[in-house]
User: Which sequence fits this backbone?
């Protein structure tokens, strides 16, 4: 590399360090030292290898850059400034109320597709973006800047396994091995060989370099670009706080503004006005065109007994036909979730993620960032494995569709480890989420189809066993709605149920009616948003609500109902799973949990 | 190995297969084929290497056996029968209501310490048990039977990293590489070398064998026992359904009873009456004695401003002095959670688990299985990473103490990725859990100490910023209690708060009192179990409850209150975080989320 270029890159890197120090100093917090270690790496990437049009973030040929070490946001924002995307005044708004430059990057910025800050997530999401690149046959690259501390997260190795086995050569991880975590040395310190052995074992091309040597960095980035059939990881030995003696390679300097920023800026050679011209991608790349055909959804006859998971699978396959942008992801249980019906029709848009639920959800987030409409399905219980990824998908405003099968004690003999009993609570707390829980096959079809157009994280909860079809084919079930299944002027209470408990509620209502106790029944298939109007009407009319759900008492349907009618103050009695189930038949389980027809009828009688 | 021994081992393995087939046939479900592949491995382990006293499961020198592939429970129960621990009638109660022999093993059985069935958890928990063995200086070994499919879980590699780096030579993983997952071939099929490269890179001793050859198995198990300073993984190539042509090495035979069990039993040579004499551990091992000293808890002066996380750290260190069985685990944030105060005093009982929250919780589960009292601390937000492990800890009836710092929007500038806003909901749904949320330092101390004696999963939520001390040193805060902080006969509403919002509620109450609107204030520091009596009294007296929490609207304090008073039907207005925060100061965050003093006062006025 010519001396002139080396000088320019050193100047650019120095400016990135200075600006990282300045931004954190102005904010009084942030991570300047974690930014300074990676400044040379990113300077060379931006100046020599990145292909990105900052004026057109939606250009389909743009490279994708993910800061998996999201706390190095001062560096990212300093890069934006050097590239002319933001000005100095905005840089100095870092971490202030209303600023787009948050403590950790979020998609409030047009150049950020996914939020990071929970470590170990950027690389798995990058795997999803790289999967999209292969699907779209577009030549963009996915660059992921990782910290060394975050390599302890298992999700990193789920990503390493998937990318390695799939040979995602368009994925390049750059690890800033600065040897210091938040509270002290990392496990492997500067032993980049330890990381190389691990990534190598997972099938990656590995390159170990000095992360402050522009020549070595340039060579490594080029080598990564030239590598075929394998993802590349560049393991760059760096010094945290590089360039400022007060903090360089010192413990106790994590996540703090520098004590004497003016002195540090002097030490770094003062402010500069270096611009970096990021290469735009080659012209002529056309966005991938998704095929669109008329929708023809499956339907089921009234009275037929069909599992909602089966209807989901059939609906997903039908959606696949109509919408070329629908993709499905599986956690090695597609025969159980019935996502296998989609695989059969569209193997090229079906992704087997194996038993790696974090990568399952992360891949969905990555795919949606490129405009695909992912449905990711596994057992409801095992979605808890990906809770942090779901949480962060909410922060990313990602539009992903999650499907959890085998909900509740109704699965029967398999026992508590396989029962999704916490999923409604988990998905309800997710920012901007939608939570749907069908009770029959036609409703499951309608809700599966409705999810295709939902924004944010949406969730469909399905049931293992067969349930009778109670809705005619083609009926509409708007998100946020509910269905009144039993109602009479003399109703003394209203039972609110969803999924399997709808059928128990109907049986209980019939039994109570025979004992001259008329009660209403509402099918609350949309748990979030919830049909407040219908619930308030029921509460006003009967004054007594009995909620019944195949889920824990906390955070599920019952709480959604209480919340909707709370300011009105009706009596609300909740039936839910409170004990620890063992093995038993589905019927025994519902009875033991106190959520079957008999328990409901008894609860009504006790209440009245 | 002499011919006679080989014959015996073959007979024992055949019986294990026959009994697995019989148990599943009787139940009409279960995983006989996944049991049959590992029968030879377990036959040799039980006959030749395991040291276990079935009559005395609490013998401290017993080896520990964990079926990480919990679905192979028919094999485990067949082993119990062969060892004389259960009889044939009980074996055939498999998966029936009331039986201890659940679909997946749980501690309802005296020989099972931790529940499995959610894949990828047994090995990380085994790491915790092995850590305990080192701490106790006892010579027991931890044997973990893994499936090959579950090696896709990132948690396996968190475990591999911790055990490899710590050199846990008392940990031996046996992987049943039967090449078939639930829905088809695994990623690596019979390529045991692929797994060996991975484990080897993480520092493990690896042995690849034919998993149906007793001689090879015996050699490998002995080799593992003789290995020093490294954990061992035995990668055993096996055939799923081995021994029965109908299912052997065939796809589509996962998780089902065999179609023709009688024919299968014939093919396996019929029923046998083979007993296995499991060697008891050497006598003379004495249980580790935990030191006990008088308790001297820290205390804070009224009016002092101290973060509850700081008080937690000081209390934990004090507990460490008094109770020799208290251990602390950290997710590489001990300087933030303040668990570092414990590390300083008791480095030998402090475990740095690095940024691997699944392994963090799993290690706690493993340690408590050996009688230790673990406190595992990280940011509240990042406990979501371990949700499935927390869920399964509930199923295991494990007594672990989790501490989540940096709760809520009150952390300020770091932004949403670092804010614990879903933790109360997550922990409330956990079976048998306790959820505590102190508002001042003395209360934090008391609750930290109270957790030491709690059974099940308990959770302490701490706050980043300083809050004023409002309770005198030494005051008592029973779990399940609450504190009435403002109350007058004319109260027109009661504000229910916890943690940071207590201080906002007090300020709001003072402001309202100045406007002649007297309101009560309850500090609901025990969110689960909740003080139903106090809430009902408040609801009865004022008829209006305003809940305010630094947590999402769903599943937290507000829902706990609604649930407690639901059958009474007061008006409940909930203030909670509903939007997506960005960066801002703590005060701005509370205001923006509508949970500060002004928002509370306005809500009261609006309600009245």
Assistant:
């Amino acid at each position: 590399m010519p001396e002139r270029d080396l000088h320019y890159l050193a100047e650019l890197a120095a400016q990135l360090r200075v600006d990282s120090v300045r931004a954190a100093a102005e904010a009084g917090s942030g991570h300047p030292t974690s930014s300074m270690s990676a400044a040379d790496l990113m300077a060379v990437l931006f100046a020599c290898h990145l292909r990105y049009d900052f004026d057109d973030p939606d250009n389909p040929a743009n490279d994708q850059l993910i800061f998996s070490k999201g706390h190095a946001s001062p560096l990212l924002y300093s890069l934006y400034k050097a590239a002319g995307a933001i000005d100095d005044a905005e840089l100095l708004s870092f971490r202030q109320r209303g600023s787009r430059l948050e403590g950790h990057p979020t998609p409030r910025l047009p150049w950020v597709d996914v939020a990071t800050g929970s470590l170990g997530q950027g690389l798995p999401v990058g795997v999803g973006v790289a999967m999209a690149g292969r699907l779209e046959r577009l030549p963009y690259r996915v660059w992921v800047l990782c910290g060394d501390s975050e390599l302890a997260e298992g999700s990193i190795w789920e990503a390493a396994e998937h990318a390695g086995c799939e040979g995602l050569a368009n994925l390049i991880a750059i690890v800033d091995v600065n040897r210091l975590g938040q509270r002290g040395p990392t496990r492997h310190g500067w032993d980049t060989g330890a990381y190389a052995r691990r990534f190598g074992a997972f099938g990656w091309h590995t390159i170990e370099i000095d992360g402050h040597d522009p020549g070595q960095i340039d060579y490594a980035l080029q080598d990564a670009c030239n590598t075929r059939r394998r993802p590349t990881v560049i393991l760059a030995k760096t010094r945290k706080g590089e360039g400022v003696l007060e903090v360089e390679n010192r413990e106790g300097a994590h996540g703090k503004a520098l004590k004497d920023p003016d002195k540090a800026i002097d030490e770094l050679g003062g402010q500069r006005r270096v611009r970096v011209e990021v290469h735009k991608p080659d012209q002529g790349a056309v966005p991938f065109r998704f095929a669109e055909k008329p929708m023809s959804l499956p339907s089921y006859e009234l009275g037929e007994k069909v599992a909602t998971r089966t209807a989901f699978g059939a609906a997903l396959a039908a959606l696949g036909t109509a919408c070329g942008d629908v993709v499905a992801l599986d956690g090695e249980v597609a025969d159980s979730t019935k996502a296998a019906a989609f695989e059969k029709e569209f193997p090229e848009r079906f992704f087997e993620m194996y038993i790696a639920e974090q990568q399952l959800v992360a891949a969905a987030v990555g795919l949606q960032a490129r405009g695909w409409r992912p449905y990711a399905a596994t057992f409801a219980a095992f979605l808890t494995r990906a809770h942090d990824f779901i949480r962060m998908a909410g922060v990313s405003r990602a539009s992903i569709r999650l499907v959890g099968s085998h909900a509740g004690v109704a699965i029967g003999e398999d026992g508590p480890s396989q029962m999704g009993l916490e999923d409604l609570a988990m998905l309800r707390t997710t920012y901007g989420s939608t939570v749907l829980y069908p009770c029959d096959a036609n409703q499951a079809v309608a809700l599966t189809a409705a999810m295709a157009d939902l924004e944010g994280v949406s969730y469909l909860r399905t049931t293992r066993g067969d349930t009778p079809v109670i809705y005619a084919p083609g009926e509409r079930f708007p998100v946020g709605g509910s269905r009144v299944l039993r109602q009479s002027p003399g109703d003394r209470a209203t039972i609110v149920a969803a999924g399997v408990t709808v059928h128990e509620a109907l049986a209980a209502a019939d039994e109570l009616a025979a004992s001259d106790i008329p009660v209403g029944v509402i099918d609350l298939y949309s748990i979030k948003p919830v049909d407040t109007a219908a619930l308030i009407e029921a509460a006003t009319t009967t004054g007594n609500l009995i909620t019944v759900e195949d889920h824990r008492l906390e955070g599920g349907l019952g709480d959604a109902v209480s919340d909707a009618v709370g300011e009105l103050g009706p009596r609300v009695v909740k039936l839910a799973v409170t004990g620890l189930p063992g093995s038993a038949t589905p019927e025994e389980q519902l009875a033991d949990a106190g959520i079957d027809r008999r328990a409901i009828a008894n609860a009504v009688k006790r209440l009245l």
